[in-house]
Amino acid sequence: MTTAQIIQVAAPGGAETLAFTDSTLPALKENEVRVRHNAIGLNFIDVYHRTGLYPVPAPFTPGLEAAGVIEDVSAGVDGFVAGDRVAYCTGPIGAYSSHRNMPTDTLVKLPDAVSDEAAAALMLKATTVAFLIHETFHVKHGQTVLWHAAAGGVGLIACQWLKAKGVTVIGTVGGADKAALARDHGCTHTIDYTSENFTDRVREITGGAGVPVVYDSVGKATFDGSLDCLAPRGMMVSFGNATGAVDPMAPGILGQKGSLFLTRPSLLHYASARDDLVRLTGLVFDAVADGHITPTINQRFALRDAGTAHRALEGRETTGQSILLP
């Protein structure tokens, strides 16, 4: 029997609901492996699960992303052996743990060039960027995009990758330090939302034309203004709710503002098939190998301090990527 240290949420609520405790892992089922985590990704979706915005049956262990080493394999496992370095980014939920049993269809092997910490910091966020810029809206060389929260974990990866693709990035940030960080990672124009009207600045930067696509993980606070940043037939990509859920809107508004497109994509749908997961993570690993993206791990928290990590994330006190260490 293997004893794991886990974070457990007994019922939805604040960061204080993240309790550090021990748990005994069950025997492996067919096509499962036991993974010892070396690094765990911290993502805003973990907050949504904890608060109940995205309901999960309680009690539960949060987390969709981690990297580590396979310690044991069950009958029927093909393609993985004990000692393999692996990572995952689409769940199932339960990554806030020192060890766990995992189905093999969600695992990918890590190349030697990608460390466990880099994988935990990049997998979910960079795979999200991969589908957002290659599939949700295929951004092309020479285009200009608006990316909200450009100094955040997803934003810094997007700025690097889009710059490598020859794309101009306009990024919103909160403060001078975050603006400098975003520019250091390839953001061409930064807009400080604490002192500037981002809609007016986007129109100014683009000579009144607007942008073909807006990537918005902020939600309620930026949604309406983002629509006004779009060129006719532009696409609004709403992929997060950091400031709360977007208010209901009449579809006719999209027509009034230029026959706009609106989508609310999720990695869980873009990578639900194994072939899609392997392809998207392959794009990430290639981008790392090519030097187009590198992790910016600015916060490391002990697993037992998950509550502190969540408070920092919700308080917009973090930059780049954050990880938990068992």
Automatic annotation (TrEMBL):
Q: What residue intervals traverse the membrane?
A: none
Q: Which GO terms describe its molecular function?
A: mRNA 3'-UTR AU-rich region binding; NADPH binding; quinone reductase (NADPH) activity; zinc ion binding
Under SMART domains, the record lists: PKS_ER
Any single Pfam family the record assigns to this protein? ADH_zinc_N
SUPFAM superfamilies assigned: GroES-like (SSF50129), NAD(P)-binding Rossmann-fold domains (SSF51735)
Q: Which InterPro entries match?
A: ADH-like_C (IPR013149), ADH-like_N (IPR013154), ER (IPR020843), GroES-like_sf (IPR011032), NAD(P)-bd_dom_sf (IPR036291), QOR-like (IPR047618), Quin_OxRdtase/zeta-crystal_CS (IPR002364)
**Would you name any one GO CC term?**
cytosol
Query: What keywords appear on the UniProt entry?
Result: NADP, Oxidoreductase
Enoyl reductase (ER) domain residues: 13-324
Protein name, please?
NADPH2:quinone reductase
Give the species this sequence originates from.
Eilatimonas milleporae
